[in-house]
Amino acid sequence: MPEGDKLYRYATQLRPVLEGQTILAARAHGPGPVPQTSRIVGAVCTGVRSQGKNLIISFDNGLALRGHLRMHGTWHVYRPGEPWRIGESKARLVLEVEDAVVVNFYAPVIELLEERALADYAPLSRLGPDLLDDDFDAAEALRRYRDPAVATVTLGDAIMDQHLMAGVGNIWKHETLFRCGLNPWRRVSEIDDTQLVRMIDVARALLRASAGKRDEAGKDQRRPEMYVYWRSGQPCRRCGTIIRSARQGVDLRYTAWCPLCQPVAEGQAVLPGRRSSS
């Protein structure tokens, strides 16, 4: 699933192409609900931004497109007349401006909404602080993690809960918990505030680096190296221990971890490979 850093890069790619441009033609296709794109033909794009795993395109007539890519969605930009790299039957949304064609492929969610309604629209309003926001509120993220309803949730599940903080998906779940030395099956209640704050800070640093945002010193950053994601059965790049994996979460996707760098803690309630009963 594209994560917050990927959506940020898509917004960066689309912004110079669409902002200030008049939409000359627009069309959308199913499956699923199809937005009335005729309502934005003739409108001028006023902004493109990401919010968590959402991409929002705003127009001067008060409307906005919201796209969520889920597992396989992607955004492409083409010159007029240029062949597409994916078949047109897979296109969900096509926007044509004077010098470019913007195409969304595969996204299951493309919606046309009123801009003024976005602040109260549940898929956006319920999101936690956005890790890529320059004004990211770490204290609010910590407060949400300390909600009693989250106490028994395992870290591997909690760190991807977009209602707690927005942007982390499966890749940066793995890499954040590895760098923090946290076993993914530990519950939120089993780590202290210092560990939680570090987890939040590391997740933000990784997403910012992957998104191409400069560090605190103003230097460009490279995409972080992968230590555990997609490396089950291979030696840990830090200690040489074989990376293990097991299914975790409601969707039972595999989570990988290093048994030495992310050890089971004394008294840990949920062990790797076993689901919590609560």
Written overview of the protein:
The chain has 278 residues and is an alpha+beta fold. The chain has 2 domains: 4-125, N-terminal domain of MutM-like DNA repair proteins; 138-257, Helicase, Ruva Protein, domain 3 (Orthogonal Bundle), CATH 1.10.8.50. It is built from 6 helices and 10 strands. It has helices at 4-18, 122-125, 138-145, 155-158, 170-180, 193-211, and strands at 25-28, 45-51, 54-59, 63-68, 74-78, 91-97, 100-105, 109-114, 244-248, 253-257. A 4-stranded antiparallel β-sheet has the order 1-6-7-5, with helices on one face. Helix 1 (4-18) packs parallel to helix 6, helix 3 packs across helix 6 and helix 5 packs across helix 6 (193-211). The longest helix is centred in the C-terminal third of the chain and has 19 residues, at 193-211. The chain is elongated and about 65 Å long.
Outline the fold blueprint.
Layout: H1 4-18, E1 25-28, E2 45-51, E3 54-59, E4 63-68, E5 74-78, E6 91-97, E7 100-105, E8 109-114, H2 122-125, H3 138-145, H4 155-158, H5 170-180, H6 193-211, E9 244-248, E10 253-257
Antiparallel strand pairs: 1-6, 2-3, 3-4, 4-8, 5-7, 6-7, 9-10
Helix pairs in contact: 1-6, 3-6, 5-6
CATH architecture verdict of the largest domain: Alpha-Beta Barrel
Radius of gyration from CA coordinates: 20 Å
The number of helical elements comes to 6
Number of domains: 2
Largest sheet: 4 strands, antiparallel
